[in-house]
Amino acid sequence: MTRKPKLMLFSHISHSQSITGAEKLLLRFCQEMSPYFRCVLVVPSEGLISWLARKNGIRVKVQSYELLHTIYTPYEGLRHEADRLMHTPSSHAVIHLLQKESPQIVLTNTCVNAVPAMAARMLNIPVIWKITETITMNAYTAESIKIIDEFSNWVIGISQTVFEPLQGGNISAKSTVLSPTWDDSFAAIHQWNDLRATRRSMMGLSPEHFCIGYISTFIYDAKGLLPFVRSALSLCELHPHSRFWIIGNPVDEVYYNQCVRMIAESGYRHQFIFTPFLEQVSEAYCAMDLTVVPSMVKEGFGMTALESLYFGTPVVAFGQGGLQEMMEAVGNSHLLAEPGSVEELASRMAVCIQNPEETARTGERSKLAAEQRYGTEAYKTRAEEMIRNLMSRFPDWFNTPSARIRTHGKKRKPARSKKKILHQRKKKSTSARLRKTVKKSKNTMKIKPMKKNKRKQTRSAMKPLKSQKKRKMTS
């Protein structure tokens, strides 16, 4: 049987205490590709993603190297920086790793993760570049496009928004939109009520409290905590039963402290709850009545919003980027605010607070729409379509007939030749058992006659003695 081709997937980060949206997307993609490839996940260090990968039976290699951060915010010296990067010892280590592992395909995750793509193309290994963010549009964006185009055979974007800046070169002719899905490990629906009651009890929330959540793995200015706090403070007096839950780990301490100080000086500190990032985010989404995603940049997608909708918790967000694309796809455009507008964000939040029953119904409708568009089955279908497309365009990558690659569709009946092979094996094993039985029976037959003959010989030898004894008695 032909072996599956080896696919090496490079993660640009690997945090030990938490996992970002980009890491979640890569891990899920890796799991989805396992039926088609022998997947090897490469991480810059040990972390939560490497632990989860091994838990799911995925082989992991650790190799650190530098990132090309300025490809996300391009500038005049971008190409020079990319060339310099390939002459560093860590980049040489990546090249050595690829030479040692000899993968058929390399996949690099996020636009800043350029080293694996450049190293693979130097070794004539095909590259799939997975873009999860929207590159900044400026006078030098064309330089980013050139690098991605030059060092990729195929490009995957997680939304149409991701491809908006990538309109130059040949990228549009070699690309696929593969929208994300949620994590299979999230709590099942029968657990939600218990999780909600437990977490809200821990925070001192009664059924009458309306909980509005802000959640981000890492908190810095682009994640919009400041407009969230300002919007929340404007609602505290009119809605004293509202509670604002901030979840995440601060990266920019100055920015985070500014938000905390604003809350402390407002007189409404009792209406705010602060929690470090939760590994079990199911508890957070279950406890919330509304999730706010006030991102200040054009996100590639919006995993926080999608995860919230999985639990039937409605979302208010700034209307831009992949987040707006996703919200409109599930019929929630009425919950989008003008990007950066504190007043509009507060207005959308106020409508939800004032109409909790309708807000809950909106969450249920959004959940159904998200299931159809972004659920696990929809994701599997899109992934399978992409694989079929790649197999037809790049058959050398797979080096195996398409029928040999397992798909998520209807299982095919075994080929006739395979049935014959199984029959021959069964026949062979049966014959072996028969030969063993016959051999055993032959050995048994050899022994029995010997015992019988021996007894006969003993009796014949004794007969003359009996006759002689009889004659003696007669005489």
UniProtKB/TrEMBL annotation:
Keyword entries, A-Z: Glycosyltransferase, Transferase
Stated family: Belongs to the glycosyltransferase group 1 family. Glycosyltransferase 4 subfamily.
Top-rank lineage group of the source organism: Bacteria
Organism encoding this protein: Paenibacillus gallinarum
Record Pfam families: Glycos_transf_1 (PF00534)
Ranges where the record places region Disordered: 401-475
InterPro entries to which the protein is assigned, alphabetical: Glyco_trans_1
Protein name: Glycosyltransferase family 4 protein
Taxonomic classification: Bacteria, Bacillati, Bacillota, Bacilli, Bacillales
Boundaries of every Glycosyl transferase family domain copy: 219-367
Compositionally biased intervals (Basic residues): 405-458, 466-475
